[in-house]
Amino acid sequence: MEGVVDVYMRDILTRIGGFDLCVSEFVRVSQHLYPASVFYTLCPELKQGGKTVAGVPVHVQIMGGEAHVMAENAAFAAELGAPGVDINFGCPAKTVNRHDAGATLLQWPERLHEIVSAVRRAVPENIPVSAKMRLGFSEKTLAMENAVAIAEAGACKLTIHARTKMEGYRPPAHWEYLRPIAERLDIPVVANGEVWTPEDYALCREASGCADVMIGRGVIARPSLGREIAASRSSSVMGNAFNWSQILGILAEYHDLIEGMANPPRQAGRLKQWIKLLARSYGEAGVLFTRIRRLEDPQDILAEVIATKERALDAA
Ligand SMILES: Cc1cc2nc3c(=O)[nH]c(=O)nc-3n(C[C@H](O)[C@H](O)[C@H](O)COP(=O)(O)O)c2cc1C
Question: Which domains does the chain have, with CATH numbers?
């Protein structure tokens, strides 16, 4: 997730556990081959075998509308050590769509086919090429055709965010639309959208008929979610949701990790963003957010996090 799930977030979440795979923030491919520095910035894990510290592979996400340049950049990502390449056909951002990339391409199945084929041809056979799409641009009528185009072009897996671009992030996610697609394709279809709890995960699998689920915001709001889900499938994994005090410890750790980030306002922005998203699962995070929302210095935010943790421990 662009601007949210960066190398630091991937590190923290995969150490907590429950993930088979991560995808990097997108490399916005437009007119030319990017230098290695662009790939290393968005996916620093390329310098450590394409995996997070916890050993979870990170596939490089690319987004763009020109098949040959997408192919060129995908091949370079593979050369730099990407364990897989994922193509984004789901981004709803106006600026992206205006420039012929992301979800706008869902209006033309033949273009999806052209892009996926070109990328597949350019990337060595042993490196998986996958794609992610939404159910459509304004309507869902092309969902099957788009999915078939992507599969026939050689993608090894397709993630579907169960909403159209026009539906944005508005609940519900239409998991049931994925079932006929999953039944028709002979590649795995991964369900995505509105999974916030282990119960949602089970409902999503049941409604979509998909064995695998990709989770975005849900795991930011509830960092133990991946581990809880893994625990529900295996008795050897710990599976309780974190308490508020544990969450505050994770926030302090995140603060320390992002200290390497270029500028303090950006660090403060990332901390605020995470605290705000946590409020979806932890009411206490809403209270903390009102306290830190005007702070510009990440050290001041950390001080509030630590003071809140001390108060939480005293009260326990
Ligand atoms: C801030 C933000 C950034 C996102 N960035 C990406 C992205 O780079 N690539 C992508 O395929 N989807 C991106 N998404 C969409 C999510 O991956 C996911 O499809 C969507 O949020 C629905 O799933 P969720 O309900 O589990 O979050 C982003 C979503 C948000 C809210």
Answer: 7-233 (3.20.20.70), 244-315 (1.20.225.30)
Interval 129-185: pLDDT, tens = 999 999 999 999 999 999 999 999 999 999 999 999 999 999 999 999 999 999 999
Ligand 1 centroid to 316 CA: how many Å?
36
- Residue 215, ligand 1, Cβ within 6 A: yes
pLDDT tens per residue across span 211-221? 999 999 999 99
Distance from the Cα of residue 58 to its chain's centroid: 10
Q: How far, in Å, is the centroid of ligand 1 from the Cα of 193?
A: 9
Dist. CA 311 → ligand 1 center (Å): 34
Which ligand 1 atom is the nearest neighbour of the CA of 86?
A: 11
Q: What is the three-state SS of 289-300?
A: HHHHCCCCCHHH
* Count of beta carbons in the 10 Å neighbourhood of residue 291: 14
